[in-house]
Amino acid sequence: MNNPGNDEKSTAIHFTPAGAEKMMARLILRSVDEGECRVWIGGRANNGYGVTGGGLTGKRVRLYTHRAAFAAANGGYLPSGVVVRHTCDNRPCVKPDHLVSGTTADNNTDTLERWTSPVAWGSWTGQRGTAHRSSKLNEDKVREIRRRYANGETQTELAREFGISTPNAWYVVNRKTWAHVE
């Protein structure tokens, strides 16, 4: 299913008290308990968040279920521009206790602190070398790869031996990664 037609935080949500009750009933009906979470089993957007239809100002729109759950559980209103964050890091979770409001900056901080995005794994955070979460090499191995390549071993052979991909071996040899290692 495609993402809803509006971005995650752009649309304000305003339920009447009866509408909030109806939305909560729908969310409970279409979700199941999984561990500590209440997971939406209905439609999902490509990004993993649950989506459902909701009537706002007399017309049907697609809503992210975690935003609808937060609004329904907190007086029926969610202002435009407010991000709803998951404390459980489980995108389809609709359990109100796991949802908090915040800003995009708060959400980005959560992502970096809890390693919930591939962006957080790379150099964008300033992590390189052995500090990089998924590093398979260390400085000694990098020096050895470069030395052995200079002595005639192929990048493919070195990649197999060191448990990395051939393109990664190329990056090491050509100092595109591990550039700080002499």
Describe the structure.
There is one protein chain. The protein is an alpha+beta fold and 182 residues long. The chain has 6 helices and 8 strands. The strands form 4 sheets. Strands 1-6 form a two-stranded antiparallel sheet. A hairpin with a 2-residue loop joins strand 4 and strand 5. The chain is elongated. The N terminus is likely disordered.
Q: Give the CA-based shape.
A: elongated
- Main sheet specs: 2 strands, antiparallel
Strand pairing plus helix content: what structural class?
A: alpha+beta
How much of the sequence lies in strands comes to: 15-25%
Number of helices: 6
CATH architecture of the largest domain: Alpha-Beta Complex
Give the H and E element order: EHEEEEHEEEHHHH
Q: For the CA atoms, what is the radius of gyration?
A: 23 Å
- In percent, how helical is the residue content? 25-40%
Number of structural units classed as domains:
2
Low-confidence stretches: 1-7, 119-124
- Would you state the CATH class of the largest domain? Alpha Beta
Overall residue-averaged pLDDT value = 82
InterPro entries: His-Me_finger_sf, HNH_nuc, Homing_endonuclease_His-Me
Protein name: HNH nuclease domain-containing protein
Organism: Cryobacterium melibiosiphilum
GO molecular function: endonuclease activity
